[in-house]
Automatic annotation (TrEMBL):
SUPFAM superfamilies: HAD-like
InterPro entries according to UniProt: HAD-like_sf, HAD-SF_hydro_IA, HAD-SF_hydro_IA_YjjG/PynA, HAD_2, HAD_sf, PGP-like_dom2, Pyrimidine_5'-ntase_YjjG
Protein name: Haloacid dehalogenase
UniProt cross-references to Pfam families, sorted A to Z: HAD_2
Entry-linked NCBIfam families: HAD-SF-IA-v1, YjjG_YfnB
GO MF terms, alphabetically ordered: 5'-nucleotidase activity
Length: 228
């Protein structure tokens, strides 16, 4: 790790606590739109549906608008909750509007960023929507740590597509040999980075014991200090 000069972070599920913030955003959305389903019941169905749609989105099999509509429509259908397309559109808009209002970060985020900022140039590579991701970074007060922020929308491709990583390296004036990617997704972050010759650190926050490969695995952000 002595040759590392550039550290690229994923955002959601790595630094920014997506699950907690998303739950809070949906509570606000439900209150605004008088949705009478219990939030816990809705989220139990929604989360795996959302995961499925994001996987399809990363594989470029659905569009941004299809993701935003489909994940809600499918969830309400499973719950047999009648809702108009206009209301689904309103919920989708409200959700993305409210999501950056909540700024819970994983334990150790500020500590590890303060530590790394003194030694490396820091950047973000995220598959999230451009405007929303920038708002998240600013509302959680970590925007200033990063020199370059690369979103899939700005590139026109999504991790693990090599185009994203090569674009990020070029934008940061970095080389694959002096760069490392840190993220929670084995396919999008870790394998995506390895495929272009970068090193990678896997944020194994769920303590998945079956994980192995040619990359470092950490169970907390602070553990990164042992390697960088």
């Amino acid at each position: 790790m002595k040759d590392i000069e550039h550290v690229f972070f994923d955002l959601d599920h790595t630094l920014w606590d997506f699950e907690k913030n998303s739950d809070l955003a949906f509570q606000k959305v439900f209150n605004r739109n008088n949705i009478t389903i219990e939030l816990e019941v809705f989220l139990k169905i929604y989360k795996p549906v959302n995961f499925k749609y994001w996987k399809l989105f990363s594989e470029e099999k659905v569009t941004k608008s299809e993701l935003r509509y489909g994940r809600l429509k499918d969830t309400f259908d499973v719950l047999n909750y009648t809702v108009s397309d206009d209301l689904i559109d309103e919920i989708a808009i409200n959700y993305l509007e409210f999501l950056p209002d909540f700024n819970h970060l994983f334990d150790g985020t500020f500590e590890i960023l303060d530590y790394l900022k003194e030694k490396y140039e820091l950047h973000v590579i995220t598959n999230g929507f451009d405007e929303v991701q920038h708002k998240k970074l600013k509302s959680s007060n970590i925007h200033h740590y990063f020199n370059k922020i690369i979103t899939s929308e700005s590139v026109g491709a999504k991790k693990p597509n090599p185009k994203v990583f090569n674009y990020a390296l070029d934008l940061a004036k970095a080389d694959k040999d002096n760069s490392i990617m840190i993220g929670d997704n084995l396919d999008a972050d870790v394998q995506g980075a390895l495929s272009v010759g970068m090193q990678a650190i896997y944020c194994n926050f769920e303590n998945n014991t079956s994980i192995n490969g040619e990359f470092i695995s950490v169970n907390s952000l602070i553990e990164i200090k042992q390697y960088l």
